[in-house]
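Most newcomers find our protein records easier to grasp once they have seen one. To make this concrete, we reproduce a full record directly below:

…
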Amino acid sequence: MDSSKAILALAALAQNTRLDTFRLLVKHEPDGLPVGELATLIDVPQNTMSAHLKTLSQAGLISGERHSRSIIYRANLDAFRDLTLFLLKDCCGGSTELCAPLIAELTPCCAPGVQPS
């Protein structure tokens, strides 16, 4: 990931509704959620939700797929991984003793059978 893509993704996440939406979509992987359910869960009007989804989609953080009459949105976990790795690249100047606590904190959330809080 280059700086311009990272800035676009971070800018898309730098708003409460979009950040909440993205986090909710990550929680609902791999099934995703339809726009109407997202709007209800986040408690925003559907047309407002559509505008937020467009911003997240343009940043490459989510994608929508039409199923019959609704669109199911899913988090783009590859883009999320790339953004996270971009932010952590050269973590702490390569000092493993400084990075180890950060890595240890991230690991349990993704361990098989562990439910994130």
Notes: The first helix runs from residue 3 to 13.
